[in-house]
Amino acid sequence: MRLNLTILLLLVFPSALSGQKQDTVKPRIIKHWNLSSDFTEEIIVPFDTVFSLFNRYRLADKYSPLNTTLGSYGLPFYQINFFDRITDPDKFLYSHYYPFMHLPERYLFMNTQVPFTELVWTFGGAREVAEQTFKVRHSQNVNRYLNFGLVFDIVYNLGQYSYQRAINKNFAFNTSYTGEKYKLYFAAGINNISSNENGGIADNSHLSQFDTRDVEVKLGGLNEAVSELKNRNFMLVQRYTVGSSDSKAKPDSAAKTGPFRMSGTFSHILTLENNRRTYSDNMPESGFYDTIFINKDETFDSLYSRSLKNTLRFDFSTDETRKFRLGGGAGIRNEFHRYSQINPTHGIPEADTATWKKNNFVITGRLYNNIGEKFRWTATGDLYLSGYRAGDFFLKGIVSKGFVLNKSTALWNITAGSQISFLPSGMNNGEAIILNGKTPSTRSSELM
To answer: 304, 279 in Cβ contact below 8 A?
Structure first.
């Protein structure tokens, strides 16, 4: 009996010591967030490294679960859900590729006590229609405030039909400094997306007679038609906070009756984007095009846009430890846009480049109110005072209410928005496009 009791104590005692040691070890903390659409607030993103729903690797499906596609992942697609669609006019060149891309409002930042690396590779389908994705992400803190991260994505898809290959290669680098008073966010992205064009199915009756790879398409191997998108972007956000809301204090009874606190934040936000869409075909006289304007030997069309947005603003917020919290802010934004396109020149076998340069001056604002931990409303708006979009007005609001159901949380969101846009002067229905009463200037230089 004594021998059995001694053995039992020897087995239990080390376990108890191990449990006590684990309780004293400081847990590793990983914080994961992105910035709000106006770059004024950190939005916490749940961080999950387990294999729950690992099969949902498609970024397009995570952004919006219902999409209309061309049959293959990596090609342009359209959100069936109206509220998920990209309606920002500044994103007209890449709205159908948006979830694939690394852009200023979509960058993810981390704060981790140990280096973090994520590697994801998927492969599926038969060899002739294979679909592959590859992603590597790394994030590492230099100290408790400074972090560096990078991510590299590849989508390679041969497609369900002939001449439908998609190759997407996207890279991003970001860094963040999150001090108590001063915060800095920097990020730069390179997005290269290439899609082969087959012109669509030649005869719909073939769908029921042949496999997808044997269905005849309108553009073949002689055309080598390709659509390409190249995006380069840059983001710099600096925020300095004056005053203190004592956000680290615990929301106890003393805090509720203590002195009223308020903090203010001055922000400088700079974003730059270059976008270029091109389409090429090595055999324009194959019968697919009804008109050829410039060159009968090779087709090459190009659209280019550049946007530079510079914002200065001030935001305030009351004590975050109180049950009733109010905040808001306002600022001014200057926008510079440059648009270019290839223009056919009659009687000359070469094309010219048409260029538009436009500016906007915008007042932007935001107001929000938190009541407790489960109710919140937010309103944001932009008013264009001058420029080619003078008079445009955007207003968006959201009301959120949380509910606790069987130890889990349900969230009910009500969103509403209003948009008023005016045609620039000189742009009337049925008339040629003239911006601000001036015809586009032409330049012989090629697009950048």
So the answer is: no
70 lies in which domain range? 20-322
- Is 283 inside a domain boundary? yes
What burial letters (b/e) apply to 143-177, b meaning 16+ CB within 10 Å?
A: eeeebebebbbbbbbbbbbbbbbbbbebebbbbbe
Q: What is the total count of domains within the chain?
A: 1
Structure tokens belonging to residue 16: 């108890």
Within a domain: 445:
no
DSSP result, 258-326: S---EEEEEEEEEEEEEEEEEEEES-GGGTT-S---S-SS-EEEEEEEEEEEEEEEEEEEE-TTSSEEE
Q: What is the spatial distance between Cα 400 and Cα 412, in angstroms, rounded to a whole number? A: 6
Identify the CA nearest to 129 among candidates 154, 162, 167, 155. 162
pTM beyond cutoff 0.90: no
Let me know how long the chain is: 448
In a domain, 348, yes or no: no
C-alpha 113/C-alpha 109 separation (Å) is: 14
Burial 419-447 (b: 16+ CB within 10 A, else e): eeeeebeeeeeeeeeebeeeebeeeeeee
Residue 430 belongs to some domain of the structure? no
Closest CA to 389 of 337, 429, 350: 337
Instruction: Extract the tokens encoding 358.
Output: 């436009």
Q: Using one digit for the tens of pLDDT, what is the confidence trace for 256-307?
A: 455 667 889 999 999 999 999 999 999 888 888 888 777 788 888 899 999 9
| Tokens representing residue 366 in the block | 């935001």
- Reference 177, options 251, 266, 239; nearest CA is 239
